[in-house]
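ASSEMBLY PREDICTION REQUEST
Request ID: AP-0331
Submitted by: J.K., bench scientist
Number of chains: two
Total residues: 228
Priority: normal
Notes: Please return the full assembly, not individual chains.
Input sequences:
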Amino acid sequence: EAQVTQNPRYLITVTGKKLTVTCSQNMNHEYMSWYRQDPGLGLRQIYYSMNVEVTDKGDVPEGYKVSRKEKRNFPLILESPSPNQTSLYFCASSFYRTVDVDEQYFGPGTRLTVT
Amino acid sequence: GENVEQHPSTLSVQEGDSAVIKCTYSDSASNYFPWYKQELGKRPQLIIDIRSNVGEKKDQRIAVTLNKTAKHFSLHITETQPEDSAVYFCAASRVASGYALNFGKGTSLLVTP
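STATUS: Completed
Returned structure:
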C-alpha cells in the first residue's frame, strides 16, 4: 500500500531533551516536506527536500533540523525542544517535476507536547 | 512570500444545500491550487486541485474555480451531506518556491441533517 508513515504518533517530552520524528514513504517520491499545524494558524512549512542530500528551509525552520540521506526517509530533529514547539506535525511527499507541482501526500501526523 | 487568505472561517449549511469557500492569494506566480479536507484527528487529504492554465474543474459534487486576474479561487460543494463536515484548507504553490504549499487558515464546515 502506498503510504507516508510517521513515528511516533504521540510524544510528550520535556524542554531540552533532543528528539527525532521519523518520516518514511514507499512511493519513490523525490520531494518530502514537514509542516506544523497550530490552531488558528493552519499548516506552515518547516523544511523541505527535493531529493537526497538536498534540503532547504520553509517558513518556520527555527529550532528544527532535517536530513535526507535516503530517498524514502526524512527525519525531523528537535535538538532542544521548547514549549512553543508543541504542535501537530505532518510529513508530506510527492513526485518532483521541474515544470509542474504534483499532489502532496500527507502522513498521519505526530502530536508533540513539550512541557 | 505567498499569503493565502481563506473565508469564511466557519460555515454551517443544511444538508442538500451548497457550500462555497473562497481564497485569495498574493503571489501572481503561483500556479497550483489544491484543496484539502481534514476530518477531526486525521491527515489532510486532497479533494481537488486546479492549475493556472485552467479556469474551472469539477469532480462530481465538488468544483473549483480560479480567477487568475483577481487572484482568487473558490471551492463549491453541491448537495452537501453530513459526511462533508470537516475542515477545508486551500493552498497555493509554485515550482520556483520549492513546492511549498502555502495554506489558508481553514474553514470549518458543518452540514446539519
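REVIEWER COMMENTS: Chain A has a mean pLDDT of 94.
SIGN-OFF: pending second reviewer
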